[in-house]
Amino acid sequence: MSHRVVITGLGVVAPNGVGVNKFTNALKHGDSGIKFYQELKDLNFSCQIGGIPEISEALISKYFTPLQRRGFHSSGILFGCISGIDAYTDAGLNINLDEVDYDTGLIFGTGTSGVEKFREAIYKLDKGNVRRLGSTVVVQTMASGVSAYLSGMLGLGNQVTTNSSACATGTEAVILGYERIKQGKAKRMLVGSCSDHGPYIWGGFDAMRVMTYKHNNNPKMASRPMSASASGFVPGSGAGALVLESLESASERQATIYAEVLGGAVNSGGQRQGGSLTAPNPEAVKRCIKQALIEAQIHSEDIDLINGHLTATSKDALEIENWTKALNRKGKHFPYINSTKSLTGHCLAAAGAIESVASVIQLKEQFIAPNINCEDLHPEITKMISRENIPTKKIDFNVNTVAKASFGFGDVNACVIFKRYES
Predict the structure, then answer these.
(1) Per-residue pLDDT tens for 44-73?
(2) CA angle, residues 143, 144, 149, in degrees to nearest 5
(3) Helices marked H in 127-242
C-alpha cells in the first residue's frame, strides 16, 4: 500500500531568521542575513562576510540542559537540534521522557560536524592531555552526531540516521524520509540538515576562490544569484527541519498540514560529460528534474514556482538552461523562480533543508519571495526566460506546486516536489 505524505511541522535556524515566524517575515520583506565578520578579515580571508544565525544563550537554555551544554562546541548540531525540536513540537507531538516513539524516525544530514570541537581536541592531544578531551568529543565530531543528539532528545525509535551529500544533503533527506513513509515503514519522519560555520569550514572555499570578495563593505548586496555582477557565493550556516507524516496519521491526530510531498528524485552525473567534483553534469541534472516529475505524477506545466540551487556563481545560467530543457518551458511560459540564497547566503549542507522550509512557507502563505541583488540579470538568463519570472519584490500568488532542487559537490543532484495540500 502506498501512503500519501504530508508536512505537519517546520523548524528553521537561518541567518535571516531563527524560528518559522521570523524567517517568514524575512522572506516576505526580502531581508538579508549577511554580515561582516572581523575574524575573517583578521585571518586574511578574501571573503570577510557570511550568514550566521543569531542564537542567544537564553534561547539555547530552552533546548539544552546545563549538563548537555557542558563542553559543547558544535554550532551545526546546536542549530540542528533547535530546528528539529521546533519542527517536532510544531507538529503537535509531545516529548515523552520515558517512552520510545517507534513510529517516528529521523534522517538529518550534515556536511562537516564539530570542526571547532575537533580543533579543540587536537590541541589537547598535541599537548598530551588525552584524558582531558571530555566525554562528548566523539559524538560532537562524528558525522551522525546531530542525529544522535536529536533522536535522544526526542526519544525516536524508527530509523535514525545522518545523510551527507554536500549541498544536496537537505533535499535528499526530505526525499529519503518521504520514501520511508510512503512504503509504510514509518508513520512520521523528522528530516532536515544542518551546517557549522566559521573559518575552519569556510577556509577551503575561500582558497578555491568560489566565494565573493567584492562586497566586504556592503554585505547585504553580496549574495547575487542570477546577477550579471555575481562574483561567487556568500557562505552561510544554520539548519532546517520538517516533520513528514502519513496522511492517515496526520488526519487521525487532526494535525495542521502545511503541504504535501508528491515525490522526488536523486541521482549523480558520475563526474562525466561536463560533470566533475565541483561542476554538474547537465544531462544528469535534467534527468533528475524529469524523474521527480514522473515520481510526483505531474506535468511540467503544473510547476508554479522553482526554488533553485542558484548560488551566485558562473553556473547559474547553466542551471536555468537545464530547467528550461527539463521542463520544456521558456520565455514567459517559464515558472516563477527564486533563490533564497540571496537572503541567506549559501548554507552549504543546510541549504536544501532551509530552502525546503522556505518553499513550504511560500505554499502555505501563498506568496513568492523576492530575489534581491539581481536587478542586473545575467544576459544569458534573459535570453532564456522572462524577467517577470524572476521577481525582485514579493508577489502574492496562488502557488499550487513548487519544485525544489539542490545540486552538490561530487556531481550529486536532488529534486523534490511540494504541493498545496488538498483533502
Answers:
(1) 999 999 999 999 999 999 999 988 887 777
(2) 130
(3) 137-141, 145-154, 169-182, 199-208
What is d(CA 188, CA 335) in angstroms, rounded to the nearest whole number? Answer: 31
Question: What is the C-alpha separation between 226 and 340, in angstroms, rounded?
Answer: 12
Say which amino acid occupies 358: A
Q: Quick one: average pLDDT of 118-137? A: 68
- Report the distance separating Cα 76 and Cα 149, nearest Å: 11
Q: Kindly indicate the confidence band of residue 113, based on its pLDDT and cuts at 50, 70 and 90.
A: confident
Beta bridge partners of 17: 14
Question: CA quadruple 277, 270, 111, 260: dihedral positive or negative?
Answer: positive
Residue among 195, 205, 221, 223 at smallest CA distance from 45: 205
Total-model pTM: 0.96
Q: Are 237 and 76 in contact (CB under 8 A)?
A: yes
What are the residues whose beta carbons fall under 8 Å from the beta carbon of 58, sequence distance 6 or more? none
The DSSP result for 353-422, as a single string, is HHHHHHHHHHHHHTEEPPPPS-SSB-HHHHTTB-GGGS-SS-EE----EEEEEEEETTTEEEEEEEE---
Shortest CA distance to 418 belongs to which of 391, 400, 398, 394?
A: 400
Pick the range with the lowest mean pLDDT from 24-33, 123-132, 185-194.
123-132
Q: CB count, 10 Å around CB of 72?
A: 18
Q: Can you tell me whether residue 50 is helix, strand or coil? A: strand
List, for residues 271-324, the tens digit of each pLDDT value.
999 999 999 999 999 999 999 999 999 999 999 999 999 999 989 999 999 999
Cell reading at 238: 544554520
If you search the block for the grid coordinates 545560467, which residue do you land on?
317
Enter the C-alpha cell of residue 89.
513540537
Whether the predicted pLDDT of 123 surpasses 80: no
What's the mean pLDDT in 406-413? Answer: 96
Strands (E), 211-342: 238-246, 259-268, 305-307, 336-338
Which of 180, 183, 171 is closest to 104 using CA atoms? 180
DSSP3 helix / strand / coil % (the chain, rounded to 5): 40, 20, 40
What's the CA gap between 229 and 208, in Å, rounded? 19
Contacts for 137 with CB less than 8 Å, ≥ 6 apart = 117, 118, 121
Helix (H, G, I), strand (E, B) or coil at 418: strand
Using CA atoms, how far residue 394 sits from 16, 81, 221, 367, in Å, is 16, 31, 18, 7
**Predicted confidence (pLDDT) per residue in 339-392, tens digit:** 999 999 999 999 999 999 999 999 999 999 999 999 999 999 999 999 999 999
